[in-house]
Write a structure and sequence with these properties.
The protein is α+β, with helices and mostly antiparallel strands and 540 residues long. It is elongated and about 150 Å long. It has a five-stranded mixed β-sheet.
Length: 540
C-alpha cells in the first residue's frame, strides 16, 4: 500500500510540474494574455480616444505640458512616445492605424495613435491614488474628467445629445441622469454632491472579482450625473472563459494520471466483485485476477488465499459428510441386523426391552445422519426449484392429513381462509411445513393451529402450538443448526436440532423468511413468509 501511495504522489508531482512547465506557458500566451489585453483595452477605451482626439488639435511641442497639467485627473500615468513603426509588429501597426487601443498587459502599457509621429502611452501604476477608494474609480476618473470638461463648454439642454455622440468612443455604456432618478442610499447621494466618484458593486462584479459594476460622478453646478457601466456583462464573459479554460486544463491534466492510476485498481475491484458473486453461487474454484500495476493486488492475493481455504474447508466438509454417510450407515445396518438376530433368539422380557431401547437409539442416530446429510447438501448447493401455482387451502389440508392420522391424540386445526393461490416448490415447501408440524407435535401439548393468508407482498403460513413457547431472546437462535433451547427437554422428545435450520434454508430459496413469535394458544407460532414476485419470474 505504501508503494502505491508513493507512486500516486509521484504521478501527482510529475503532473503538476508538467502542467507548470508545458501547459501553463501555452495557457498564458493563448488565453490569459489575450484576455488581459482585451480587459486593458476595454477599461481604457473612451478616455484614451477622447484624450487622443484632444491632443490632435494641440501642437506637438505643447502636448507634454498639457498632459502634465491634466495628469492629476487620471488614475494612470500619461506620456508620449515617438511612433517608430519598427518597434511594432505588422499586426500592431495595422491595429494602431485603425485608431484602436493596443494593450500590452505584460508591459502594463496601452498605446493609442495620435498621428503618424506620436503615440499616446497609458502606464498603469502599481498603487491606487490615496484619494480613491478602489480600482474602478482609478480607471474611470479620467473618463469623468474629460466628459465633464466637454459638457461644461455646452448648454445643459445639449448634454444628452453630446453624451450620445461621445458614447461611441466607449466600450461600456455611458449615460446622463439626474440626481432624482438615482435609487442610491442617502450616504451615496451625499458623496456624489461632494464631487466624489461613487462605485456600485453587484453580484456579477463580485463574481469576477472587479471592484464595482457602475461608476457615477456628479457634474458641478448642475443636477446631472454621469453614469459609466455596467462593466460586468462583457468582463464576466471573458473572465469566466479564461477561468474555465484554466481549471479545465489544470483539472484535466491532473486527472488523467490519477485515472491511469485508478484504472488497474478499478479492474481489480471488478474482478473481486465477480469472484465474490461466483463464490456466493458455490463456485469455490473461482479466483481473482492479479492486474498489472494495480494497487489492490495485495487485496486480491488475500482474497484468493481466503477462497483457497474456503475451498479446502468445503472439500474436507464434503469428504467428512460422505464418510459419515458410508462409515456410519454400514455399522448401523449391522447393529440393526444383530438386533433382529438377538430378538429372534431370546424370550427374556428384560433383554427384549433393552433391544427395543437400542433400536430406538439407532433410529434416532439414523435420523440424525439423514438430517446432517440433507442440511450439508442444502448448504453446499441450491437445488433446482420447480415453482408451481397451488391452492394453499387444498395443499395444506393434504399435507396435514397424514400427520393427523399418525397422531390421533393431537388436535390439528386448519383455519381456512377461502381460495388462495400461491407459487411454491411443492416438494421442498412440503418438507418445511412437515418440519414445523413435527416440531409443534414434539414440543406442543395437544393442540396445533395452522393458518395461511395472502399478504401485501406475498404469502404467509403460520403453525402455532400450545406448548411452553420460545423466549423472544432466542427467536433467531432456534433456526441455527443443532441449537437446543432446553437440553433436558430435548433429551425427552428427541430430535436432531436441524429441522428448523432446514426450514430456514428452504424459505431462503423462496426469497422468504422463517420466524417465530408467541402464539395465541400460549406456545410458539412459527411463520413462513415469502414474496409474490416469484409469480412474475415464472410467468416470464
Amino acid at each position: 500500500m505504501k508503494r502505491s501511495l508513493l507512486f500516486l504522489s509521484f504521478i501527482i508531482i510529475f503532473s503538476v510540474v508538467s502542467i507548470q512547465l508545458l501547459v501553463i506557458p501555452h495557457f498564458e500566451s493563448n488565453v490569459r494574455y489575450p484576455t488581459e489585453k482585451w480587459a486593458l483595452e476595454f477599461l481604457t477605451s473612451g478616455s484614451t480616444d477622447l484624450l487622443a482626439q484632444q491632443l490632435q488639435s494641440i501642437p506637438k511641442h505643447q502636448r507634454i505640458a498639457y498632459l502634465q497639467t491634466i495628469q492629476a485627473n487620471f488614475g494612470f500615468e500619461l506620456t508620449l512616445q515617438d511612433y517608430q513603426q519598427n518597434d511594432f509588429s505588422s499586426e500592431q501597426q495595422s491595429w494602431l492605424s485603425e485608431d484602436k487601443i493596443w494593450g500590452d498587459p505584460q508591459a502594463d502599457l496601452a498605446y493609442r495613435k495620435i498621428d503618424n509621429e506620436q503615440l499616446l502611452v497609458i502606464v498603469k501604476p502599481n498603487t491606487v491614488p490615496k484619494h480613491l477608494v478602489n480600482e474602478a474609480q482609478r480607471w474611470m476618473m479620467g473618463s469623468f474628467y474629460l466628459l465633464s470638461n466637454i459638457l461644461a463648454k455646452h448648454p445643459q439642454h445639449n448634454w444628452p445629445s453630446i453624451i450620445d455622440s461621445l458614447s461611441d468612443n466607449f466600450s461600456y455604456p455611458v449615460a446622463l441622469m439626474t440626481l432624482s432618478e438615482l435609487t442610491y442610499t442617502k450616504q451615496q447621494i451625499a458623496q456624489l454632491k461632494t464631487g466624489a466618484i461613487v462605485t456600485i458593486s453587484t453580484a456579477d462584479s463580485n463574481f469576477i472579482g472587479y471592484p464595482a459594476d457602475i461608476a457615477v460622478q456628479h457634474i458641478k453646478n448642475s443636477d446631472k450625473v454621469i453614469v459609466l457601466g455596467p462593466f460586468s456583462p462583457q468582463l464576466k464573459g471573458k473572465v469566466v472563459y479564461m477561468l474555465s479554460i484554466f481549471y479545465f486544463i489544470f483539472g484535466f491534466f491532473l486527472l488523467i494520471p490519477i485515472i491511469i492510476w485508478l484504472i488497474p485498481g478499478w479492474r481489480s475491484m471488478l474482478s473481486l466483485n465477480k469472484v465474490a458473486i461466483l463464490l456466493g453461487q458455490g463456485k469455490f474454484d473461482a479466483r481473482a485476477k492479479l492486474i498489472r500495476f494495480s494497487h489492490l493486488n495485495h487485496l486480491s492475493k488475500t482474497f484468493n488465499t481466503m477462497a483457497e481455504k474456503i475451498q479446502r474447508l468445503i472439500s474436507s466438509h464434503k469428504t467428512l459428510i460422505n464418510a459419515v454417510s458410508h462409515e456410519l450407515r454400514t455399522p448401523i445396518a449391522r447393529i440393526e441386523f444383530n438386533i433382529e438376530l438377538l430378538r429372534n433368539s431370546t424370550a427374556n422380557n428384560y433383554q427384549l426391552g433393552q433391544l427395543e431401547r437400542i433400536e430406538l437409539s439407532l433410529n434416532e442416530l439414523n435420523s440424525l445422519v439423514s438430517e446432517m446429510l440433507t442440511h450439508a447438501r442444502f448448504e453446499r448447493e441450491i437445488p433446482t426449484l420447480t415453482f408451481a401455482a397451488v391452492e394453499l387451502n387444498h395443499w395444506i389440508k393434504q399435507e396435514l392429513l397424514c400427520l393427523q392420522e399418525a397422531n390421533p391424540d393431537i388436535d390439528i386445526i386448519l383455519l381456512e381462509q377461502g381460495v388462495c393461490h400461491a407459487m411454491i416448490d411443492t416438494f421442498y415447501m412440503s418438507r418445511a411445513l412437515s418440519n414445523l408440524m413435527r416440531n409443534a407435535i414434539a414440543y406442543g401439548r395437544n393442540r396445533i393451529q395452522v393458518s395461511y393468508k395472502k399478504t401485501v407482498k406475498g404469502w404467509l403460513i403460520c403453525v402455532a402450538d400450545n406448548g411452553d413457547g420460545i423466549p423472544l431472546s432466542n427467536a433467531e437462535k432456534v433456526f441455527e443448526p443443532f441449537y437446543r433451547e432446553d437440553q433436558s427437554r430435548n433429551l425427552q422428545v428427541g430430535g436432531t436440532g436441524l429441522g428448523l435450520a432446514i426450514v430456514k434454508q428452504i424459505l431462503g430459496w423462496h426469497e422468504g423468511t422463517a420466524s417465530v413469535e408467541p402464539s395465541s394458544l400460549g406456545g410458539a407460532c412459527f411463520m413462513l413468509n415469502w414474496p409474490a414476485k416469484r409469480i412474475h419470474q415464472e410467468s416470464t
